[in-house]
Amino acid sequence: MTTYVELSTKAKMPILGLGTWQSPIGKVREAVKFAIDVGYRQFDCAYVYQNENEIGNAIQEKIEQGVVTREELFVVSKLWCTFHEKSLVKGACQNTLAALKLDYLDLYLMHCPMGFKAGEELFPVDENGMIIPSDTDFLDTWEAMEELVDAGLAKSIGISNFNCEQIKRLLNKPDLKYKPVNNQIESHPYLPQDELVKYCQSQGIAVTAYCPLGAPNWPWPKSEDIFLLDDPKIKEIAAKYSKTSAQVLIRFHIQRNVSVIPKSVTPHRIEENFKVFDFELTKEEMETILSFKRRCRICSTSM
Q1: What is the β-pairing status of strands 4-6 and 12-14?
Q2: d(Cα 300, Cα 17) in Å, to the nearest integer?
Q3: Contact at 8 Å (CB) between 109 and 142?
Q4: Which residues fall within 8 angstroms of residue 165, CB to CB, at 6 or more apart?
Q5: How confident is the model over 100-130, as pLDDT tens digits?
Q6: Catalytic site residues?
Q7: Residue 16 near residue 254, CB atoms below 8 Å
Q8: How far apart are CA 18 and CA 20, in angstroms?
C-alpha cells in the first residue's frame, strides 16, 4: 500500500504528514516528538505559524536520541507573503532553517501567489483594514526560490494556494529553471478541487491537502455546515470499516495520491490519524465522497 508520493525530482514525500498550523507553543514540541515515535516522517511547517523553533527542538531531540535520522524526515516549510521581494527570500529561508535547526529543507513552498508589503507585520493593512500588497511578481519571487535549490538550502521548491491559471503562468515562465514539485491546497469533500488536483498531477506537480478534516478547531466563525466529521455519509463509511470519520477523510486523499497533513496536538488523535494504511475505500465510496454537493472553503486567508 502506497505510503509516499514520488516527486518529479524522484524524491519520496511521505503521503501522510503532521500539520502544525494552530499547534500552540507549549504543545507542539511534544506533539512532534510523539508523532515521530508513532511513525510520522513528514512535518508541515511555515514561518507564519510562529512555532518553528519548538518543532526544531523536537526534531533535534529525536535525532539526538537516535529515534530517527535527518535523512528519514521530510520537512516542509513556506515562504511567507511579506518576503516576496527577491532580496528577502534567502534570508527568510535561512531564518526558518535556524528555527528548525536544520541545514536544509526537503521542500520549501511559496505560501501564496500574492505577496504582502515587506516589514515586521505578518498581515500589513491600510487604514481601511485591507491587506497592503507587494508589487513583486511571483515569477520574480520564484527566481529567488530557485537559487535556494542551487545553494543547497532546499532540496525542492513548490507552491501553495495556486490555481490552474497561476500554475500555467509559472510553468510558461521564460528561463524556468526548476518546476514546482508540489502545490499545497485546501481540499476535503466539501472542497475537493478535483479539477485542480488532476491538472497538477498531469503536470507532474504533486498535491498536498490541508484542512483535510474540515478544520474542526477553526478559530474564526464558520458555517455550521462545515462539520465534516459529522457528515452522515462519512460516518456511515467509517462505521463499515470500524474507523473514525477522520480516518476515512485521510484515506480519501491517500487514494487520490494526494499527500495529506492533518493537524493535531492530541496524542491519541495523532496516533489514530496514522492508522489509515490497513483499509481501502471502494471505488463507489470514493465516488460518493467526490460527489458531495455541499461546497465550502474554510481558509479564505490561505494559511
Answers
A1: antiparallel
A2: 22
A3: no
A4: none
A5: 999 999 999 999 999 999 999 999 999 999 9
A6: 49
A7: yes
A8: 6
